[in-house]
Design a protein that fits this description.
Ral guanine nucleotide dissociation stimulator-like 1 isoform X2; five-stranded mixed sheet; alpha+beta; about 675 residues; about 10% strand
Length: about 675
């Protein structure tokens, strides 16, 4: 007997074989399921049969592994003609990576028309059930993903669906549903146009909020309660996270860019990214606009942000918590030795504990475990090494229990972007036969399902937005990397800081004496234009990584694919690595855009170069380029005919650069000339 992937999920099953047919590949499983005879089914009260445990049978379950769009649509119904809810959910959540809504709709309609065109002799209850199931799929699609149809002003898909309902499914309710959705979209369009007009009018009247240029404005931070700031940040973060469209997080969608280098396909993700950067940059700004203050007074601003971060931890807002930690770990702030030294011991311990949450060790294991533990919990489980902090945390916990406090959860979205980008980089979109790799989509759906679950948790918050607070927040002037560095050096000159930092490193706890830019948190991801700036939160392990360049004249931040130390990366196995590769353009950029590719243990240099050229969409022959691994003390040239897997240095980050052979040869000649001239001058 054959069944589907959604039946009897709790019963034991084992993989049997792979089955191929034209346009599809299936994984076949054997499942042991309980069998009840018709006699026993009629007598529901019979529970005493001593042989009931022997009544079972084996079903074959087929799960589509890869297929054409037509076969994937065909699999929306199972072998009994019923809607396969598991496959429907995965398909509707991920299909945008391999098809457009219009293509899917046309394929769905063709399938329906094909089944409906059967002759009376051929029609069976099975066919009728399939027709009913396909109509149910359309309803699910309209209810779950209405944004797929919100493409005005023509609304082509909705009008096509309306025509389908009129011609092939009259009385099904689809036509009425389409009209309701269309009316809602048109109302939204009118409201959006009115808001845009109002905003334009306010700008023309000069009602925009002035940018703060007074350095004393940073003192206003100390006048606002930490809890107030934490609650307002949480209110904004929760609202943005609830508006995130989960399938926009897919690695092939959210980092996609147009020819001008701007992200266009995931506005809900970009809004969350922008808010993250807004918080981090304002943390930096409020600490640097204090030139007239002593280090002990500036430490109060630093302590304020650490306390706000702790309040965010209590509110389970991991997004702004990460943003604040990122700001405090930025080079411009981290180098202020005197300011950090003036912090109390408890504040330093608290900062270290909060920073440890987002440690990149073992693919951000700490933050993942914490999120899994507290995602749907009523309140956070706080702990500390400090006795005084531990005592305060216990008091807060008792208060939450006594008052019945229930907190929502806002995750750090970068964690999910990490996973989805890695899946997108490591798994091919199609098989060697050209079929859509649906196993990849199953893996992506597992991450998307977590986002949807957390969105339910984020809706629990009951915090009202304070417009006055946001006027103050938006009025704070932020600085580019260069400006921040200059301000920081004006507060504590480099010579003074560098001369004494080693002697005082013990007073800074675990704060490293050497600033590692790879641990900083702002970055722009997915950009193929090195001059574009689209900042987003950090650490896409082995796939997206933060990097701040203080020699840049802009506050650019960069990279599309990570900066995690290779000694801790989970993306290595005995037969493959995920490596990060940038392409040198010949420009004097200080930023680098990294993309991830899968390196197999059989890949030679020319094969890897071909993968890189394909990833960047660059035309050219492999022999026109050379591949170099970036090492702490220079570059390692990978020989033309080498097996890259064994030729690379795996004791450091697996970061490579693809350079034209002409540029490499010219650089080599310059180095030789420099060495010769150096010898002459020494003589």
């Amino acid at each position: 007997m054959e069944t589907t992937s959604t039946e009897q999920q709790d019963d034991a099953s084992r993989f049997w074989r792979e089955e191929k047919e034209t346009g599809a590949v299936y994984n076949a499983f054997l499942k042991k399921v309980t069998y009840l005879s018709q006699t026993r089914l009629e007598d529901e009260n019979e529970k005493n049969s001593e042989f009931s445990h022997l009544m079972w049978e084996t079903h074959k379950v087929r799960v589509i592994k890869a297929g054409t769009l037509e076969k994937l649509v065909e699999s929306l119904t199972n072998t009994r003609g019923e809607m396969d809810s598991s496959h429907v959910n995965i398909f509707l959540a991920t299909y945008r990576t391999f098809a457009t809504p219009q293509q899917v709709l046309e394929t769905l309609i063709e399938r329906y028309v094909q089944l409906r065109s059967q002759t009376k002799e051929e029609k069976t209850e099975f066919h009728e059930q399939q027709l009913r199931s396909l109509k149910s799929v359309i309803f699910v699609w309209l209810d779950s993903y209405p944004e797929d149809f919100h493409v005005g002003p023509e609304y082509t898909c909705l009008h096509r669906l309306e025509q389908f309902a009129h011609d092939y499914a009259p009385g099904s309710g689809i036509g009425r549903k389409v009209k309701e959705v269309l009316a809602g979209f048109r109302q939204q369009d009118v409201e959006l146009a009115a808001k845009q007009l109002e905003y334009s009018f306010s700008l023309s009247e000069g009602n925009g909020h002035p940018v703060d240029t007074d350095s004393s404005k940073s003192l206003a931070l100390l006048e606002i309660s930490c809890r107030k700031i934490a609650e307002q940040l949480t209110c904004r973060d929760a609202g943005l996270f609830l508006r995130v469209i989960p399938h926009h997080c897919l690695g092939a969608v959210w980092s996609r860019r147009d020819k001008q280098g701007t992200a266009t396909d995931a506005p809900s993700i970009q809004a969350t990214i922008q808010q993250f950067n807004n918080v981090s940059l304002r943390v930096i700004a409020t600490l640097l606009k204090t030139r007239e203050l002593k280090s002990s007074q500036r430490a109060k601003v630093l302590q304020k942000w650490i306390t706000i971060a702790q309040d965010l931890r209590e509110l389970k807002n991991f997004s702004s918590l990460k943003a604040i930690i990122t700001g405090l770990q930025s080079h411009a702030v981290y180098r202020l030795r005197k300011t950090w030294s003036a912090l109390s011991k408890d504040s330093m311990v608290l900062f270290e504990e909060l920073s440890e949450i987002f440690s990149v060790e073992n693919n951000q294991l700490n933050s993942r475990e914490l999120l899994m533990k507290e995602a749907t919990a009523k309140f956070p489980d706080l702990d500390s090494q400090s006795k005084s902090l531990k005592r305060k945390n216990l008091q807060k916990r008792r208060s939450w229990i006594d008052n019945g406090i229930v907190q929502g959860t806002v995750p750090y979205l970068g964690t999910f972007l990490t996973d989805l980008t890695m899946i997108d980089s490591a798994c091919p979109d199609t098989t060697e036969e050209g079929l859509i790799n649906f196993e990849k989509r199953r893996k992506e759906f597992e991450v998307i399902a977590q986002i949807k679950l957390l969105q339910v948790a984020a809706s629990i918050y009951n915090i009202s937005e304070d417009e006055r607070f946001w006027r103050w927040f938006n009025s704070i002037r932020t600085y580019s990397d260069t400006e921040s560095h200059e301000l920081s050096c004006s507060l504590e000159p480099p010579s003074e800081s560098s001369a004494k930092i080693k002697k005082k490193s013990a007073s800074l706890g675990n704060k490293p004496s050497k600033i590692d830019n790879s641990k900083l948190g702002l970055f722009s991801c997915g950009s193929e234009d090195r001059n574009s700036i689209a900042s987003i939160p950090d650490t896409i392990a082995a796939s997206i990584g933060p990097l701040l360049s203080h020699s840049s004249s802009t506050s650019s931040v960069i990279s599309s694919d990570s900066d995690t130390p290779s000694t801790h990366t989970p993306f290595k196995s005995s037969d493959s690595y995920v490596i990060k590769v940038s392409m040198e353009t010949g420009q004097n950029d200080t930023t680098h855009v990294y993309k991830s590719i899968m390196l197999m243990n059989s890949d030679h240099t020319q094969v890897v170069i071909e993968k890189i050229l394909e990833k960047y969409g660059v035309d050219g022959r492999p022999d026109q380029f050379c591949l170099l691994q970036l090492l702490p003390d220079g570059e390692l040239l990978i020989p033309e005919r080498a097996n890259v897997f064994y030729a690379l240095n795996n004791s450091v980050d697996l970061k490579f650069i693809l350079r034209s052979r002409r540029d490499y040869d010219q650089g080599k000649d310059k180095r030789k000339t420099g060495r010769r001239s150096g010898k002459k001058s020494s003589v």
